[in-house]
Amino acid sequence: MNRVRLDPVSPDELAQRVAGFVECGHSHIVRFCAAHPTVLARHDEAYRELLNRGDLTVPDGQPVAWALRLFGCPAERLAGSDAMAFLCEWGVAIGLRHYLYGGTPEVAGQLGETLARRYPGIQVVGVESPPFRELTDAEWHATAERIRAARADCVWIGLGAPKQDWAAERLASADARAVLLCVGAAFDFVAGAKQRAPRWMQNSGLEWLHRLLREPRRLGGRYLRGNASFVIGVVRDSLANGRTRSL
């Protein structure tokens, strides 16, 4: 099977799963998967296997949820930005400890300040913006050590797919002992560095168009070619398969 397993959950169900992962005490990986990573995974076996090794892969992006429903799997989208907001608010009462990993130094710092202002009492125990290059094994282990030393429960990784997915795997392998949540552009959106699409565009599956119009040079290939590949793959799968929760 050249598809990615997806795990539709509500915000409350996500919180329950995260609480269980935190109690376990080992590293767990939660990803918020839009159409783009599923397209990459169809043509990259190593990346596909990486995604399918994750503990929870949540459908992010309205087209992903629609495709799952087409295959008979009840699904609603849960965007990384919305999940971050929900878990940060929910976690205040239980003392959840958050570590921010990704973005530029300015965005990461702004995100920490935004969360502190929006959710009084939140515990942000680390803010780190990694260099834009491949890290060495020693650097990955040093990062995992900083996360352990901070006693972080949730590490929010905002590096964009597929980079953030490999980063989560490296941190888990280095025994970060935290829930590693890959949330992509959520850093920019929650921090206010970039404007998210209006709610009507999110609900109608046009959030990608809003982002494309704002960043055409960076996102043109991903959305124009990638969206076509996503639709073609879904149509082929719908003709060949019955009920499924993979894309």
Radius of gyration, Cα only, in angstroms?
A: 17 Å
End-to-end separation: 10 Å
**Class by alpha and beta content:** alpha/beta
Helix content: 40-55%
How many domain modules?
Answer: 1
Total of helices: 12
Number of strands: 6
Integer average pLDDT: 91
Topology at a glance:
Blueprint: H1 11-24, E1 28-33, H2 35-43, H3 45-52, E2 56-59, H4 62-70, H5 80-92, E3 97-102, H6 105-118, E4 123-128, H7 137-149, E5 154-158, H8 163-173, E6 179-182, H9 186-191, H10 199-203, H11 207-214, H12 216-240
Give a structural overview:
By secondary structure, this protein is α/β, with parallel strands linked by helices. The protein has one domain (11-240). The protein is 55% helix and 13% strand. It is built from twelve helices and six strands. It has helices spanning 11-24, 35-43, 45-52, 62-70, 80-92, 105-118, 137-149, 163-173, 186-191, 199-203, 207-214, 216-240; strands at 28-33, 56-59, 97-102, 123-128, 154-158, 179-182. Strand 5, helix 8 (163-173) and strand 6 (179-182) form a beta-alpha-beta unit. It starts with 10 loop residues before the first helix and ends in a 7-residue tail after the last helix. The mean pLDDT is 91.
